[in-house]
Design goal:
transmembrane; MetI-like_sf; 83% helix; single chain; mainly alpha; 2 domains; MetI-like; globular; Hydroxymethylpyrimidine transport system permease protein; membrane; 0% strand
């Protein structure tokens, strides 16, 4: 806990400054106080937690699973074949040049208000860090160790599972930690532009009612969800990389 003491103190100071500033300005429909947001969150807890949170959570989980599977498979394929790398790597980079907020309405047009329009937005955002990080990890394999294993009679399968994967795992987890935070953003953007349920949808609905505290309430849950997913990934990373000496 001492490790994060400074962060906790800074957050408390910022919240206190926000509370005092919002009370001085006294325009709750524009700048609600943190206590007002928490009160609104408590008042809306049943609707947010049991209707809108599951909708957002399903989008995040499905989008992340698809991104992990496709991202890892494509990274392995590009590492295996230089031709595939030259064909796909520029396309992966180009996919991030398209503003998500601009292309998301197209997915809503194609798939309607179903879950899949939001899932595709989430995949579009989270696919990139997983693929690139895993690919860089596979390429960082120690060539001297690879040559040593070959001289000792190791097969390509042995090199892949005993050398390439351990080398790529730290990079994969780095990309995944970025992806889990982006997944919350992707789900919220998708719901904001077209949905019938979800935390992003609820925030947009509160905005049309000029309820600033209601806009912030689902944002608090989204932030907590992102932190929770990040902690889960860190936990998996520590358990699967016990061999790696870290500070």
């Amino acid at each position: 806990m001492k490790k994060y003491g400074a962060s906790v103190i800074l957050v408390v100071i910022l919240l206190a400054a926000w509370e005092i500033g919002a009370r001085i300005v006294n325009y709750p429909f524009i700048l609600p106080t943190p206590t007002g947001i928490l009160t609104k969150l408590w008042d809306l807890r049943m609707d947010l937690l049991f209707k809108h949170l599951p909708a957002t959570l399903s989008i995040v989980v499905i989008g992340l699973l698809i991104s992990v599977v496709l991202g890892v498979l494509l990274a392995v394929w590009m590492n295996w074949s230089p031709l595939i790398e030259r064909a796909f790597y520029p396309l992966i980079i180009a996919s991030q040049m398209i503003p998500t907020i601009a292309i998301a309405p197209v997915f809503v047009l194609w798939f309607g208000y179903s879950i899949w329009s939001k899932v595709i937005v989430t995949v579009l955002i989270t696919f990139f860090p997983i693929t690139v990080s895993t690919f860089d990890g596979l390429r960082s394999t120690n060539k001297e160790l690879k040559e040593l294993m070959l001289t000792m009679g190791a097969t390509k399968k042995d090199i892949f599972f005993k050398l390439n994967i351990p080398s790529a795992l730290p990079h994969f987890y780095s990309g995944l930690k970025v992806a889990v935070t982006f997944s919350i953003i992707g789900a919220a953007i998708g719901e904001w532009l077209g949905a019938q349920a979800g935390l992003g949808y609820f925030s947009r609905r509160m905005m049309t009612q000029f309820d600033a505290a209601g806009v912030f309430a689902p944002i608090v849950i989204l932030s907590a969800l992102g932190i929770l997913f990040f902690i889960i990934v860190v936990g998996f990373e520590k358990r699967s990389l016990k061999w790696r000496k870290t500070e």
